[in-house]
Specification:
The protein is an all-alpha fold and about 60 residues long. It has one domain.
């Protein structure tokens, strides 16, 4: 795995963790459903991004 892709995976993982933390805080303070769903979708897209970045790394053959 190249350093550049490792950094990309790390960045996507950190962003996903931030969405999960924001979602937990939103649920704890009883936020609007729109905010909670935004956090859920952000975390879900982060998981897709992690999978995509790892697959891209394996396919690149670098």
């Amino acid at each position: 795995m190249t350093t550049r892709l490792r950094n990309a995976i790390t960045l996507v993982v950190i962003g996903t963790i931030c969405w999960v933390i924001a979602g937990v805080i939103a649920v704890a303070v009883n936020a609007d459903a729109k905010i909670i769903w935004t956090c859920i979708m952000g975390a879900g897209l982060g998981l897709v991004g992690i999978r995509y970045t790892i697959r891209r790394d394996r396919r690149s053959g670098i």
